[in-house]
């Protein structure tokens, strides 16, 4: 195994940072994914050196040769995570070790090199430290962090690349869905699948999201906020939304989410919700759930609530499902009590408003 040549981060502050006045204006209403901070973390990889040249530099365009491998064979993975301003004024990351571990699982699936988990987290911490003034003081505001890796070797042969770049950028964000506490409406895709057995569904790679965009456009055309995908084989079993896991709450005190079968992304928010739900006395079930069951249970009243969860949106209630067959409503079509409770329990931990008995928050010192 090649030893990494990492020997601390070289910090190179931007010589032309955003002025305090301009920054304040930008983060007053940041939206989601539109505004970016002044810096980025960058680390290079080669087969002979391993990971090396770790640095914090001014955020700027990348110069890529037209034959750069990622542009042709899509060797690329990423993570999504957030830094929060905690109640005591400090800054915290929510379960960053889980992001690091999932990043390496994605790397394995895409025939890419793993990165030391401590180095992954250090890159994020260094970026947050230098750009901490970018935290938006808005409801639900945070610093969204996007670590990603891509094949940077200039080569057109079909094989795993020998050179890679790992980069982290940061974006001040507000709420993901503008509707706030209102439940979202989702479109049941009948023409498209997100992933199949043996594919890349469990990896967080850009190709999965590219494949979902046409279905998302179909959802928008039909007045829906998101799209839900079903299994590729029978097109009957609920899997996940374009970028979020799904949960179902029933009148018997149980909560169900589709099992991780290699086609579903193992969400960190999903994992946290499962623990919180169990500790709230709900009977947790990781079981297959069909689209017909979903509709029947909604119509009978057996299904009380449904919500989607992920880093960006945290927890968002699903009130209505539409498809070419028609539509059905879950509960009264609004956010249910248990959804609100689970969301608040999670957010309070993330933002330091309650005791973190799970040890999920890592403070940046």
UniProtKB/TrEMBL annotation:
Chain spans, region Disordered: 1-21
Keyword Transmembrane attributed: no
Enzyme class: transferase
Gene3D superfamilies linked: 3.30.470.10, D-amino Acid Aminotransferase, subunit A, domain 2
InterPro entries: Aminotrans_IV, Aminotrans_IV_CS, Aminotransferase-like, B_amino_transII, BCAT-like_C, BCAT-like_N, BCAT_family
Pfam families from the UniProt entry: Aminotran_4
Organism superkingdom: Bacteria
Gene Ontology molecular function: L-isoleucine-2-oxoglutarate transaminase activity; L-leucine-2-oxoglutarate transaminase activity; L-valine-2-oxoglutarate transaminase activity
Cofactors that this protein relies on: pyridoxal 5'-phosphate
Transmembrane segments: none
Modified positions (N6-(pyridoxal phosphate)lysine) in chain numbering: 204
Protein family (similarity comment): Belongs to the class-IV pyridoxal-phosphate-dependent aminotransferase family.
Known function: Acts on leucine, isoleucine and valine.
Name the record gives this protein: Branched-chain-amino-acid aminotransferase
Organism listed in the record: Sphingorhabdus lutea
């Amino acid at each position: 195994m090649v030893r990494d040549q990492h020997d601390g981060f070289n910090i190179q502050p931007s010589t032309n940072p955003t002025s305090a006045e301009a920054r304040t204006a930008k983060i007053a209403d940041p939206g989601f994914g539109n505004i970016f901070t002044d810096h980025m973390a960058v680390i290079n990889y080669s087969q002979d050196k391993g990971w090396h040249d770790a640095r914090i530099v001014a955020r700027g365009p990348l110069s890529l040769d037209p034959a750069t491998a990622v542009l042709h064979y899509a060797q690329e993975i990423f993570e999504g995570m957030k830094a929060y301003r905690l109640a005591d004024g400090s800054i915290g990351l929510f379960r960053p070790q889980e992001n690091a571990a999932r990043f390496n699982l994605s790397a394995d699936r895409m025939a890419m090199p793993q990165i030391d988990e401590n180095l992954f987290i250090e890159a994020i911490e260094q970026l947050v430290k230098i750009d901490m003034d970018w935290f938006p003081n808005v409801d639900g505001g945070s610093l969204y962090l996007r670590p990603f890796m891509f094949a940077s070797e200039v080569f057109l042969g079909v094989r795993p690349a020998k050179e890679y770049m790992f980069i982290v950028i940061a974006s001040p964000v507000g709420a993901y869905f503008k509707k706030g506490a209102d439940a979202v409406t989702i479109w049941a895709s009948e023409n498209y699948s997100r992933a199949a057995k043996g594919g890349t569904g469990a990896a967080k790679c850009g190709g999965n999201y590219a494949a979902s965009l046409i279905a998302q456009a179909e959802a928008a055309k039909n007045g829906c906020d998101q799209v839900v995908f079903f299994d590729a084989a029978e097109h009957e079993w609920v899997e996940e939304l374009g970028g979020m896991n799904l949960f179902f709450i029933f009148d018997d005190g149980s909560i169900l989410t589709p099992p991780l079968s290699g086609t579903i992304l193992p969400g960190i928010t999903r994992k946290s919700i499962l623990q919180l739900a169990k500790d709230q006395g709900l009977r947790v079930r990781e079981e297959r759930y069909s689209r017909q069951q979903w509709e029947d249970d909604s119509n009978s009243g057996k299904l009380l609530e449904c919500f989607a969860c992920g880093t960006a949106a945290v927890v968002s209630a699903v009130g209505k499902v539409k498809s070419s067959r028609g539509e059905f409503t879950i509960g009264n079509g609004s956010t249910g009590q248990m959804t609100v409770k689970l969301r608040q329990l999670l957010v309070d931990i993330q933002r330091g408003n309650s005791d973190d008995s799970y040890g999920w928050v890592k403070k940046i010192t």
